Amino acid sequence: MSTDKPTGVDTYNATIERIESVADGLSIFFIRPDAPIPGRQPGHYISIGLVEPDGEKLVRRPYSLSQSLGSGIDPDLLELLIIRVPEGDLTPLLFNQGEGDRLFVRPKMVGTYLLPELRPDMTMILASTGTGVAPHMTMLETCMKTCKQIVMMECVRYGAELAYAGQIREFQKTHPNLAYISLITREGSPKRYIQDYFRDGILENEHGVTITPETTHVFACGNPAMIGIPKEDRKTGELSYETPGGLVEILTSRYGLAIHKARRPGQIHFEKYW
Ligand SMILES: Cc1cc2nc3c(=O)[nH]c(=O)nc-3n(C[C@H](O)[C@H](O)[C@H](O)COP(=O)(O)OP(=O)(O)OC[C@H]3O[C@@H](n4cnc5c(N)ncnc54)[C@H](O)[C@@H]3O)c2cc1C
């Protein structure tokens, strides 16, 4: 969270070109910066900001870039899938904005939630909760070109929140190596979470997915409870989990995958949203 300089509306350097409502309090914002922002890679995020109505304070938050599938993508347009957090500082302001309104965009692509060097023998598992599907949308077409198998897993509360499900299912028709698993927790039954698919071997047994450190990478984005980020003992390297049963714990203990770090490449990549 950053509220330091720049501060006022005079810093606004981008326009909301289009807003697509997905569900109540969930929209895709298409934002055009006055000057294109270079260096975009799948998985990057940017920061946007709005000045609070009563003052000079610019409230800024990071958002993963997203990408609708299909032809005609404008590379200079920023696509963001954003959920309104009613008690939050920025999103209630953002959801009061309309098409043509101005805002601040930090002119820099940032992040380390990036794809490894892809190989044809790879299986890429892209697992998300809520708006965490956004960075995976930017990765999908790139992975598709090279990797043997892509498994896109998405967990949301209500079916209407599956912002890109129609596009993904259409894309699947011409890309048989893409498996799409959408999970809904507050409608219908039985309730299944992303972690269940790894812990109970559902991916292997029901979907024919092989998970090995040699060929599998797992990307997990969204709710920290799904990811279950461990603390690492600096001396021994031992991991301890405040939230047990998360993906990282299952992937390390059951499948022998390792957390990816710049100095020690691994197969588990994660981006937590709060
Ligand atoms: C790298 C990164 C990328 C992000 N990308 C996205 C994105 O693509 N889309 C998006 O909607 N958000 C994304 N977020 C979260 C975003 O930055 C804000 O935290 C969020 O929009 C809430 O902002 P706020 O000022 O309204 O509320 P805040 O005051 O910042 O947050 C209040 C509380 O809201 C909850 N919260 C935050 N984000 C979410 C969320 N996405 N879903 C449910 N509850 C949430 C948390 O409990 C948080 O403590 C990202 C965060 C990070 C760190």
Give the SSE layout.
Elements lengths: L13 E10 L2 E8 L11 E7 L6 E7 L13 E6 L7 H4 L7 E4 L17 E7 L3 H14 L2 E8 L8 H10 L3 E7 L9 H6 L2 H6 L8 E7 L1 H4 L2 E3 L6 E3 L5 H7 L14 E5 L2
Parallel strand pairs: 7-8, 7-10, 8-9, 10-13
Antiparallel strand pairs: 1-2, 1-6, 2-5, 3-4, 3-6, 11-12
Architecture overview:
The protein folds into two domains: 9-105, Beta Barrel (Elongation Factor Tu (Ef-tu), domain 3), CATH 2.40.30; 123-272, Rossmann fold (3-Layer(aba) Sandwich). With 274 residues, the chain is α/β, with parallel strands linked by helices. The longest helix has 14 residues, at 133-146. The model has no long low-confidence stretch (mean pLDDT 95). The chain has helices spanning 91-94, 133-146, 165-174, 194-199, 202-207, 224-227, 247-253, and strands spanning 14-23, 26-33, 45-51, 58-64, 78-83, 102-105, 123-129, 149-156, 178-184, 216-222, 230-232, 239-241, 268-272. 34% of the residues are buried. A hairpin with a 2-residue loop joins β1 and β2 (26-33). It has a six-stranded antiparallel sheet. The site of flavin-adenine dinucleotide has 21 residues, from β4 and β5.
Structurally, how many domains make up the residues?
Answer: 2
Enumerate the distinct ligands.
Answer: flavin-adenine dinucleotide
What's the number of extended β-strand segments?
13
Intertermini distance: 10 Å
- Sheet with most strands: strand arrangement: 4-3-6-1-2-5
How is the biggest beta sheet arranged?
A: 6 strands, antiparallel
Shape: globular
**Derived structural class:** alpha/beta
DSSP strand content: 25-35%
Uncertain stretches of 5 or more adjacent residues: none
Named CATH architecture of the largest domain: 3-Layer(aba) Sandwich
Radius of gyration: 19 Å
CATH class of the largest domain: Alpha Beta
The helix-strand sequence is: EEEEEHEEHEHEHHEHEEHE
